[in-house]
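FAQ: What does the model actually see?

It sees only this:
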Amino acid sequence: MDSREVKDYLDVVSRPMDYGTISSKLEKGAYIDDIAEECNSMASGHNSMTAMEKILFHVLRDIEQVYHNCLLYNQKGCNYYRCGEVHLAKWRAFYKKFIEARTGELVKILLNEFRKSCKLERQNSKRVRHFQVLGGDHPNSKAVAVYDPDIKMIIKQYSSKTSAITAAMILKNAGYECEVKLTERNAKDKLKIALDDDSKMIFGYRWIFTDDLRSANFKLKAKPLENDIVTSTTPSNIIILREDTSSGATVRGFESVQSAFEDWTTTRAAAINSVSGVGDMDDFVKNFLDGNQSIDGVVWRRVPPVKESLETDEVIFNEVSAGPNDESLSPECPKLDESKKDTTDRETLK
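And it is asked to produce this:
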């Protein structure tokens, strides 16, 4: 995170940390200096640990700090927060499988205490995010937020209307279906309409000026009823989706069962948790694609067909079940007059 670009980051996060810093400190032996500085402030049992245990604890603590900072700064429900949750869960699964059993008891105790303090800090940190928009009062320089009405969260923000138009065209060119027909020529006008009209959605989201969102100067379109037709944002050529159940995010789409199977095979080989089954195509289709099994929280599912509304005239053919002399014959199908039938036959014989 570049604090020069995110102006309020250091107002929220008191101890920035990232994997690059952790790697650099390990390479330079900087954790030895950290140990010397913090010995007096740690629990009394800290001095009874070996040097390697102290380094291990500081590294593990810094890794936890990376995810804590992410969850502390970002709003719950946004893409960055979800991503942080997913990677934290994966890191802890890795730690539990490969590291925890080889870690001393005091290291475990100190690490759990740090985790609890982080969780408490996040619970007590309730704040209102403020957005700083640069570039003056020109309409094109006003920030545009992409708002998800379902979770009532901003999932993306663009620094200008021009950036938002570019993003919309990238989604359109990637094959995602949109409520309006977007082209290079009309994208600017379509976005302007969506920004001004409360009922207009683009790619299933409400696109709105951040200032309007912050001042609550907007309305949301009512959710569709159960029987309403909802246009899918999944490209029509995608038949299988890979989803992460921890965040609810769609990670990737596949155009064939074979391509999804190849992705599943790769994921299975690198899984943190053991995966049962023989690992062939039948196993994938039966237990994962059509079943409910997952690998480290990742699932593969078929894309349901798009719901269509077709008006069909109902036609009842009573004569199908009725006998030749059944009184229930439709009025449009009168019974044959037997006397006329006989006369006709006799005339034919002549």
